[in-house]
Design a protein that fits this description.
The protein is α+β, with helices and mostly antiparallel strands. It is about 30% helix and about 30% strand. The protein has helices at about 10-20, 60-70, 120-135, 180-190, 195-210, and strands at about 25-30, 40-45, 45-50, 50-55, 70-85, 100-115, 155-170. Strands 2-1-5-6-7-4-3 form a 7-stranded antiparallel β-sheet. It is elongated.
């Protein structure tokens, strides 16, 4: 992932806070077997210390590829919006000369994957995921051999992804003047489509931390 200096995470805490703020769905990218293209699997995930935890159906075709090469990438993308050209036109120039762009946040984890097949280990992985996604505990116990999850455990395999590198990108025109960034955030608020509101929030948050961009 290419990252301009002004798009880089300001510190590790920034991308960690962004992930913790409900960004728990991403794409697992797996190297293809020789002669085959890479595979990409969308899925929810949780964390356990520095590792990522996911589970997939046993019939998923990615398992052979992961066992052949456990080096994978997991990418989370959010708070994105299309920014039309007129919003980015330089002062004193025709609005049609503005060049459009995309705003987004992305965190890309390079990982080494370990397959989890032991029934109790898979049950513990699911318990951790349920604790995150259903913190009220409104679900049956996950216990091997006991319904409803016990009979389903053979149908899934878990993955523990040991993170070896993290790339984080927050692309919100932080190299532009303060007035420009403020105006675009306001325009996103007025448009109010899709993820415009959280995109504007990210731009304002970065603006408050960075102020005028200094190389």
């Amino acid at each position: 992932m290419f990252i301009q200096p002004w798009d880089a995470a300001l510190d590790e805490a920034e991308w960690r806070a962004w992930i913790a703020d409900g960004h728990d769905f991403g794409q697992l990218s797996v190297n293809g077997l020789p002669g085959r293209p890479p595979a990409v699997v969308p899925t929810h995930f949780t964390t356990d210390g520095g590792d990522l935890l996911i589970h997939l159906a046993r019939p998923n075709p990615v398992w052979e590829s992961i066992e052949h090469d456990p080096h994978v990438t997991f990418t989370v993308i959010g708070d994105y919006a299309f920014i039309p050209g007129p919003w980015r036109a330089k002062p004193g120039t025709p609005s049609v000369e503005g060049v459009p762009t995309s705003y987004y946040a992305a965190v890309q984890f390079t990982c080494r994957a370990t397959v989890v097949d032991d029934p109790e280990a898979k049950a513990e992985l699911l318990r951790r995921q349920l604790a995150h996604f259903q913190p009220d505990g409104d679900h049956a116990p996950v216990v091997p051999g006991r319904p409803p999850y016990g009979r389903m455990l053979p149908g899934i395999r878990g993955l523990r992804l040991e993170v070896t590198e993290v790339l984080a990108k927050f692309k919100y025109d932080d190299h532009k003047p303060v007035e420009h960034r403020t105006a675009v955030a306001d325009s996103l608020g007025r448009r109010g489509e899709g993820l415009d509101a959280p995109t504007a929030d990210q731009q304002r948050r970065r603006l408050d931390r960075i102020g005028p961009w200094k190389a």
